[in-house]
């Protein structure tokens, strides 16, 4: 058994002295793991940084086996972002969330393509408003692909599409300001850029967006107390912390 595909490195875990168990997100094979011999050696370590794009050859005797990867670097995204802690935090959070939330060997083309687009924006040094909004929307797409999509198109109580200000933590549906005002302590804020008609992607709105997707990811995609889920939630919190620093707004 073998296949070749381009993939995004999500994680690399040491195996033995210097080999690595590598997890890639590919368009054709989904999230797929394999052993890279010498993956933590001097020549391969920089290739397998999370966020890098590689061309991978996977081989195994049987389809259900772990198999082996041979990886060729295509884009060193992680190295390009070392001087920008906020964008590097976004890369780290996205790869950790995808690694923890996506079932192995299950196709999620929209999530893969969205992550590629997000990485391209980070690499181009797009402004925070652009890549921050792209990150939040990517997590919304991931939730939808996992079966937990949010409905932010109209008020769950009245059907109104104007002045949507909240999201129900139970149903994941939007609530208008008028209908939700009395219950606002129990509802989640809806950032303006996610409401019909859109709005500015300010740092505060981006934080609200990350809080919103983070709540539902913790309930669904990152639930269960697994180590990968805890690592993803911690990586997201580092991103939120970066976005709330004054130096991150440029």
Element layout with pairings:
Blueprint: E1 2-15, E2 19-26, E3 30-36, E4 53-59, E5 68-75, H1 77-80, H2 85-101, H3 109-123, H4 128-145, E6 164-167, E7 174-176, H5 177-180, E8 188-189, H6 203-219, H7 227-243
Antiparallel strand pairs: 1-2, 1-4, 2-3, 4-5, 6-7, 6-8
Helix pairs in contact: 2-3, 2-4, 2-7, 3-4, 4-6, 6-7
Return the structural class: alpha+beta
- The spatial strand order of the largest sheet comes to 3-2-1-4-5
Q: Tally of extended strands?
A: 8
Radius of gyration: 19 Å
What is the number of domains? 2
SSE series = EEEEEHHHHEEHEHH
Query: What is the overall silhouette?
Result: elongated
| Model regions low in confidence, pLDDT < 50 over at least 5 residues | none
What is shown here, in short?
With 250 residues, this protein is of the alpha+beta class. Helix content is 37%, strand content 21%.
Index terms:
250 residues, OB fold (Dihydrolipoamide Acetyltransferase, E2P), 7 helices, 8 strands, 37% helix
Written description of the protein model:
The protein has 250 residues and is an alpha+beta fold. It has two domains: 2-77, OB fold (Dihydrolipoamide Acetyltransferase, E2P) (Beta Barrel), CATH 2.40.50.140; 81-151 and 190-248, no CATH class. It has seven helices and eight strands, in the order E-E-E-E-E-H-H-H-H-E-E-H-E-H-H. A five-stranded antiparallel β-sheet has the order 3-2-1-4-5. Helix 3 (109-123) packs antiparallel against helix 4. The relative contact order is 0.12. The mean pLDDT is 94.
């Amino acid at each position: 058994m073998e296949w070749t595909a381009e993939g995004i490195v999500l994680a690399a875990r040491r195996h033995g002295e210097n080999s690595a168990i590598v997890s890639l997100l590919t368009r054709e094979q989904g999230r797929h793991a394999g052993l890279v011999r010498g993956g933590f050696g001097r020549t391969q370590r920089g290739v397998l940084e999370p966020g890098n794009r590689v061309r991978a050859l996977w081989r195994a005797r049987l389809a259900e086996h772990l198999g082996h990867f041979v990886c060729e670097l295509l884009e060193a995204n992680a190295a390009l972002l070392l001087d920008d802690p906020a964008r590097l935090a976004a890369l780290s959070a996205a790869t950790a969330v995808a690694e923890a939330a996506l079932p192995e060997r299950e196709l999620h083309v929209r999530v893969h393509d969205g992550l590629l687009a997000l990485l391209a924006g980070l690499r181009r040094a797009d402004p925070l408003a652009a890549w921050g909004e792209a990150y939040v929307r990517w997590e919304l797409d991931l939730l939808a692909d996992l079966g937990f999509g949010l409905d932010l198109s109209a008020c769950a109580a009245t059907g109104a599409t104007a002045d949507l200000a909240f999201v129900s933590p139970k149903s994941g549906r939007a609530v208008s300001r008028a209908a939700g005002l009395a219950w606002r302590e129990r509802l989640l804020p809806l950032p303006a850029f996610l409401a019909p008609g859109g709005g500015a992607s300010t740092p505060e709105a981006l934080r609200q967006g990350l809080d919103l997707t983070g709540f539902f990811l913790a309930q669904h995609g990152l639930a269960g107390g697994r180590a990968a889920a805890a690592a993803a939630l911690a990586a997201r919190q580092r991103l939120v912390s970066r976005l709330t620093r004054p130096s991150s707004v440029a």
